[in-house]
Write a structure and sequence with these properties.
two-stranded antiparallel sheet, mainly alpha, membrane, transmembrane helix, transmembrane, 121 residues, single chain
Length: 121
């Protein structure tokens, strides 16, 4: 029986040696499964660029529809507890008590928009 480290090394080597077949190789072998064609298409540069464009446009759409996200420090409550007094609560300073923060993508969009207009303060 192999040890866990030897098995992990064997599987890692098998993954490194395996490669996705290119579309010309698929046609030559006569293989016609849909998943192999999709895997081969995404292995190409055009597939990776398309996938990157889809993910980027999806995030841009998210930043357009929902520009704010819950504050990660106060977990969207807008309140912060004092470290030694359990009952003492005050407004969280990073989100000004709203519990919302501007998304990174929306912040970049606003910066580029103000730079283009030349209305930066």
């Amino acid at each position: 029986m192999r040890s866990l480290a030897a098995t992990a090394t064997h599987h890692t080597a098998a993954l490194l040696l395996a490669r996705a077949p290119m579309p010309a190789e698929l046609l030559a072998t006569g293989e016609s499964t849909a998943t192999s064609h999709i895997a081969a298409w995404f292995a190409t540069t055009a597939g990776l660029l398309t996938l990157t464009a889809l993910i980027t446009s999806g995030y841009a759409f998210t930043c357009w529809i929902w520009p704010f996200k819950p504050c990660r420090y106060c977990h969207g409550t807008g309140k912060r507890r004092a470290p030694f007094d359990i009952r003492a609560v005050r407004i969280h300073g990073r989100c000004n008590g709203t519990g919302l923060r501007l998304r990174f993508g929306r912040r970049v969009y606003e910066y580029l928009r103000t730079e283009q207009r030349g209305t930066r303060r």
